[in-house]
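Need tokens for this chain, all 102 residues.
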Amino acid sequence: MIKVKQWLNLLGLANRSGNIVTGEETIINKIRQDKVKMVIVAVDASEKTKKLYFDKCKFYNITCVEAGTINELSKAIGKINRVAVGICDAGFKKGLLAKITK
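Here are the structure tokens for all 102 residues:
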């Protein structure tokens, strides 16, 4: 039996409650507007993509973590080929960080 990572379930819940954004342009714009609390980047994303998100988050003082694969992130939110996800709610950020870093 495959053990599902708990943080992916929480990510799915955040998606259903409308507290995530996806797509490079949308995430970057929300970071600039200070509407994103955390960004999750897939571990199998390209180095260029990882650098883009980590540098942008560092500049705007936003938490950025590398977790899950592109397939896992996409499946958790019910979309296809998502490399990064922006979390817009502080409560979900806290819960996801606790589960990812556990």
